[in-house]
Amino acid sequence: RRAHTLTVLFILTCALGYVTLLEETPQDTAYNTKRGIVASILVFLCFGVTQAKDGPFSRPHPAYWRFWLCVSVVYELFLIFILFQTVQDGRQFMKYIDPHLGVPLPERDYGGNCLIYDPGNGTDPFHNIWDKLDGFVPAHFFGWYLKTLMIRDWWMCMIISVMFEFLEYSLEHQLPNFSECWWDHWIMDVILCNGLGIYCGMKTLSWLSLKTYKWQGLWNIPTYKGKMKRIVFQFTPYSWVKFEWKPASSLRRWLAVCGIIFVFLLAELNTFYLKFVLWMPPEHYLVLLRLVFFVNVGGVAMREIYDFMDDPKFHKKLGQQAWLVAAITATEFLIVVKYDPYTLTLSLPFYITQCWILGIILVLTWTAWRFFIRDITLRYKEIRRQKQEHRHEKDKCLSNGDGHSALLDEPNGNKLQERKL
């Protein structure tokens, strides 16, 4: 394998060098810099695809997941580079990726007139609904469909979906993009887009769990129909693992599940705040590429986290992709904090602060009751029950049914037995 890797790297390096020798090097410094960076990234990806450590997935091919692992490293290095730039230089650096970037953009407000039926508009009374139906509606559906395939739990998906809507309510004073009508929040997002995506995802998971995973070589299948079916099934999992998070089973699992929900919500918020501070329009291809990136690396990270939680003795270390996803999410948040601290420090409305404080107190109270007070109470009741059973057995042993002690009769019985002997 190492010899194969060195051969591929040698051929790729020779090809790149041959291309640079054939053409005359342009005198454009920016163009040469971009071309050199792209060539360096390609060489690194080629090395990583063949030499990186395999992850938990083997379909459609382990090299596919190694590729995304290497892309994670490249993306994290890019974020670190952006983090160490000034705000102006960082925003203008995006022009090297797309010349149309680096320009301040107005934020769209989805609130305003929230009438479902507007009688004042005679031509189209339902114009408010049609205005909200844009390209982000199918994006919401497919996004939550894929998230369900990653998380594999209906309750966790619904909690994250509802929690993000509360976050939008809480932060709409910072980003106008979060301002939406009530029916846009709960009917279009939670019930229709997110709920339908979660439902379809759970149906897909049910089909995958019932599917027979018996693989056969492509050339051993006699019919063309069977060969085509085998090619399609190559993009399904090699085997199936059902995720049973069981957050209330132990304090460790409860904290881990809370951490997963927190990272998911933070990554969702980073999507909106990054495009706000880096001046990227929502429909830009970089925003879509970031979502595609998280779909691929997020599935591997969730499987590594579940394996680590389910069997910590076998999986002694958390997987490499999970660590990279956590690092990327944290770095994105640091970029947002550095590039626009004023927006993040806008104080929450008083009633929003009260609601969040109440929610945090309820969660902490339930945690203390479930994993400390309840366990102490159950342990005390168990000890008390054992003492009562022990006392009852002792009294039963001391009594022989006619009021005489069995312990007092035992020496006399022993003496009679000795006399007989």
Automatic annotation (TrEMBL):
Q: Does the keyword Isomerase apply?
A: no
User: Residue ranges of region Disordered?
Assistant: 391-421
Q: Which PANTHER family match?
A: PHOSPHATIDYLINOSITOL SYNTHASE (PTHR15362), PHOSPHATIDYLSERINE SYNTHASE 2 (PTHR15362:SF7)
**Could you tell me the membrane topology recorded for this protein?**
Multi-pass membrane protein
Task: Identify the EC number(s).
Answer: 2.7.8.29
Keywords noted in UniProt: Endoplasmic reticulum, Lipid biosynthesis, Lipid metabolism, Membrane, Phospholipid biosynthesis, Phospholipid metabolism, Transferase, Transmembrane, Transmembrane helix
Pathway(s) served: Lipid metabolism; Phospholipid metabolism; phosphatidylserine biosynthesis
Protein name from the UniProt record: Phosphatidylserine synthase
Which reaction(s) does its UniProt entry say it catalyses?
A: 1-hexadecanoyl-2-(4Z,7Z,10Z,13Z,16Z,19Z-docosahexaenoyl)-sn-glycero-3-phosphoethanolamine + L-serine = 1-hexadecanoyl-2-(4Z,7Z,10Z,13Z,16Z,19Z-docosahexaenoyl)-sn-glycero-3-phosphoserine + ethanolamine; 1-(1Z-octadecenyl)-2-(5Z,8Z,11Z,14Z- eicosatetraenoyl)-sn-glycero-3-phosphoethanolamine + L-serine = 1-(1Z-octadecenyl)-2-(5Z,8Z,11Z,14Z-eicosatetraenoyl)-sn-glycero-3-phospho-L-serine + ethanolamine; a 1,2-diacyl-sn-glycero-3-phosphoethanolamine + L-serine = a 1,2-diacyl-sn-glycero-3-phospho-L-serine + ethanolamine; 1-octadecanoyl-2-(4Z,7Z,10Z,13Z,16Z,19Z-docosahexaenoyl)-sn-glycero-3-phosphoethanolamine + L-serine = 1-octadecanoyl-2-(4Z,7Z,10Z,13Z,16Z,19Z-docosahexaenoyl)-sn-glycero-3-phosphoserine + ethanolamine
Q: Transmembrane stretches, by residue range?
A: 6-23, 35-52, 64-84, 154-171, 183-202, 254-273, 285-302, 322-339, 351-372
> Can you say where in the cell this protein is located?
Endoplasmic reticulum membrane
What are its GO cellular component terms? endoplasmic reticulum membrane
Q: Which GO terms describe its biological process?
A: phosphatidylserine biosynthetic process
| Pfam families to which the protein is assigned, alphabetical | PSS
Claim: Iron-sulfur is one of the keywords in the record: no
Q: Tell me the function of this protein.
A: Catalyzes a base-exchange reaction in which the polar head group of phosphatidylethanolamine (PE) is replaced by L-serine.
What's the family? Belongs to the phosphatidyl serine synthase family.
Organism in which the protein naturally occurs: Leptocoma aspasia
Q: Name one GO molecular function term.
A: L-serine-phosphatidylethanolamine phosphatidyltransferase activity
